[in-house]
Write the structure tokens for this entry.
Amino acid sequence: AVRSISSSRSRGVSVEVGETQVAIDVTIVAEYPVSLQKVADDVRAAISVAMSEFVGKQAVEVNVTINDVHI
């Protein structure tokens, strides 16, 4: 069974939850000057660790979208 979680309180985050795995889509805004690839990689890694350690599920997919860069 797969559940999809998204609400106005979780704006920018969408989660699909399975029995032992999760898939997460997150949309963020970056601050200039940063390496967008590094920011996306760091967010992806932090989410994967949090899902594993705090939720007990493997993050099989973490999609990070940067939709703006603040200057």
In short: The radius of gyration is 13 Å. The beta strands are 3-5, 13-17, 21-31, 58-70. Helices lie at 36-55.
